[in-house]
Amino acid sequence: MTEPASINIDDAVLVERCRQGDSEAMERLILKYQNRIYNTILRMCANPDDAAELTQETFVKVIENIDRFAGKSSFYTWAFRIGVNLTLNYCKRAGKFGHSSLDADDSQYNWQAKTQLKQYLSDESSPDPATVAQNREMWQIVTESLTRLEDAQRAVIILRDIEGMSYAQIANVLNIELGTVKSRISRARSNLRQILEKMWQ
Questions:
Q1: How many structural domains is the chain composed of?
Q2: 83 falls within a domain
Q3: Which of 129, 165, 128 is nearest to 4 (CA)?
Q4: Selection from 94, 62, 57, 95 nearest residue 78 by Cα
Q5: Dist. CA 151–CA 38, nearest whole Å
Q6: Given 40, 65, 94, which residue is the final one in a domain?
Q7: Does 17 have pLDDT greater than 70?
């Protein structure tokens, strides 16, 4: 991910126009980021309808709070923080974190893809799954495995390994310490290894 640590000039102009009541500027910001935020929320809640509603609620909050955005982080990071926090809170209240079945017939998975993912999870220096995942089978395994993680661990894995956020950006989005981000990612990857071992058994 190439998003800068602070607000970029294009977003800065749009945000300032939003503060002046320019609805077209807000529409441009929404169009720029809605798909990425929706996809992140979908991976967290595993329900397209819930993800669509939470994405809409995210941008309602963005519109309501645009005057409070200080530009200390990128607009992208700020909007993601709102979306991720809304999703975490919603899923905790509703108990609606998705749990896809991991008991499906092994024939539906590509064994090479499984092996790739297992190697990734056993190597802390490995590239993120977006680099490793070369086929549909790999992404299916990743998605199903993520549904079995607890919410906090799922969030850091999605932001780091799928969205490609830096540790600092994740700490900013989740409002946690940098060391906490690193330890959660480590625990999440360890738990993913265990999930995959059970699936393969």
A1: 2
A2: yes
A3: 165
A4: 62
A5: 17
A6: 94
A7: yes
Chain mean pLDDT for the chain: 77
| Residue 115 banded pLDDT, cuts 50, 70, 90 | very low
Q: What pLDDT band is residue 130 in, cutting at 50, 70 and 90?
A: low
Return the structure tokens found at 99: 């749990």
Q: How far is Cα 82 from Cα 68, in angstroms, rounded to an integer?
A: 13
* DSSP letter string, 12-80: HHHHHHHHTT-HHHHHHHHHHHHHHHHHHHHHHH--HHHHHHHHHHHHHHHHHHGGG--SSS-HHHHHH
Cα–Cα distance for residue pair 99/145, rounded to 1 Å: 9
Whether residue 87 is found in the same domain as residue 116: no
